[in-house]
Amino acid sequence: MDERVQSQYDDCWEVVRLSGVGLCRENGIVAPCGYKKRYDDRVLGPGDKISIELSKLTLDHASGPDQPGRRSRSSSVRSSGFYWGFGFHAACWDLLAACCKPSLRKLFLACLSTPIGDDGILDWGHTYHGAASHTAPKPFRLKSLTWDAPLVEGLQADPFHVPAIMDLIEGKITPMVDDAMADHSCSLRLEDIGAGADDFYQLPTEFLENVVSLLPSQDVRALRIAAPSFALLELTEAFWQSRFNHEYQYILEALEANPDSWEALYFSIRTLEHGSTSLKNRKRIWDLALKMKVLLSEVAREPCEGPPACSFLEPFEPVDDNSWHKAARGVRTTSDPFYSGCRALRARAVTGNGPLSVRQLFVSLVQLGSGIFVSGLRFATKSRDDICIGYIHPDKEYALDFPPECEHESLYTIAGWYLALDLSGIRAVAALMDNGKLSSWAGDPQGFPRWRLAGEGVWREFSGVKAEFDGLKMVSLSRAVLEIGLYSDRTMVTSSLWSPDVPPSDLYYDGSQRFSSGDSFELPFSVVMFGGPKGVDLSDLVEIGIWLQGYDTITGFDFVYTDSSKNKPFGHIGRYSNGSTEIVYKHSGSHRHALAIDGPGLEVVKSLQVMQEEDSIHGLRVRTNTGRIVQFPSHYSRETTWTHVHPYGSTVVGFYAKCGAQLHNIGLISDNSINFDAALENRKLSLSSSHRRRKSRLSVSLGQLFKP
User: Fold this and answer.
1) d(CA 429, CA 417)
2) Does residue 607 contact residue 644 with C-beta atoms inside 8 Å?
3) pLDDT tens figures, 156-167
4) Do strands 450-454 and 497-499 pair parallel, antiparallel, or not at all (unpaired)?
């Protein structure tokens, strides 16, 4: 297939070039250097074509900027003509160029920030209007359907060269009449419309004509039906010509056309679009080009504000020596395949000598194909000088509302951040104040896992902010922290991603795997507080359901209470629906095992033993404070090592785990302010004392009964 490529030559990021039209091969494309040339031009010489690698999944060998300590590529490598980049169908490129005349550098940066699906297709957050799909067993990869014809009709039809359009311009097809727009006035007479018939009655005709010319046709139809003044208005040739700036703006041939009748051309195009696969394909691609136009308008907000730090695109900037406490999700390194997630291409860092105090904090947001993301921060300081980091959008800036009680001499001290993240970047941000209060959110936090990026105690304050960005948005946020020897402010609560929200920091978290603050978070830790606040629900818990998939893979739990309104699910429970997971078992049905718990009798979970292999749990032993130990599945007989999980706190009130197709890294949440063991012992002592008193009274009574 004919393709054009925007390519980057060796390590020069400022020079992005557009190739000529080339031919795709298995590992890339061979194309002419000149963008006006084609691969089949007879005048091309042996050195006029270059080989270009397309849609590189990794960047460690992509010949990006020389990194500190890395030697530049030799002249022999430069002379070999190594290029890489992103390909566009030649016809699609022509339509994109007609739509928005994109900046090559900004388009390249946007492509560099976009995950790459199967077949090298870029995942912009949509399915190319039916030309691609997210298919199992790789739910996070986009797959092209272009070659699945006739599954999707017309995807291979040439969208740029549609000879029938010129035939229409020449008036060779009889137009179709539109009743609602063209003929609605036929049912009305001038005398039917009197003063006050509608609000437009006394407006000049020229004004009404300008109004309908500015509206899309569907709105004109509705207006003519609703307002008699517009129903009687004659639709002029100027109106019909304006349709080619609205729903038919993709009929590029009309820009230079001078048809006998714009009305006839309009209805002729209506006739053609119902039967021409090429025209349908052009409309699909034009709609995508409009989306790209909007996207590139966001990239146009460069530069990336703030003091630069060493990064992939800016490797010669200073390397900061601060210790950073970082929140991120799905950030890929240069050596990671970029199937999903995001890339950190730039970094900005601001540090100071004291706590971060501001008059106001503004958050810039960007609307992308997959939703709203944070793109930058603007700090309004005491000195009235603004400090900016990232891509600042003045027309899409939102001021955070700080709690009034946090104000001190017209300043607010920020002690940390609350973040909502998905795999592509930061969806929303709120500021955590020095008194523990939270500001309002900027962005869209609903439905996304949360991160509480903050310190505790003496490490509550921080004096620096660092953020990483791709070409469009913020992908990580960090705070400068103090670390002395083995002491650090990084705790599991403040260094992990949690769903549905961050659990309390005054509880204890003990897992089956050792926690590391450098863990990568594809999946958040999910939390179920089956004990309720301060363990108030533990005395109502009567059963824990353990769900297994196949032979022994544990996928979830459910918790049953005396009051059924308190019942809680955790992880995957019930049977899997088709296509919900790529894992296939010989015995694929899920099944439930029940563990009875005497909550009213003060029985609670005391500890766990976990058998975990390859990120899934294959065995679980539950020990309660009554001494019972129950194993799931009960027939588990493999000789293996079990991991013991003991709570640091006195009473277990919840579980946490990463919940994918199965559970893994399960842990206990415990509270040291309550003690069910002591309560159980007191009850036993009370029962024993009561039994002794009853036995003593019985002995006395019997003695009296048999007194001689």
Assistant:
1) 7
2) yes
3) 888 999 888 888
4) antiparallel
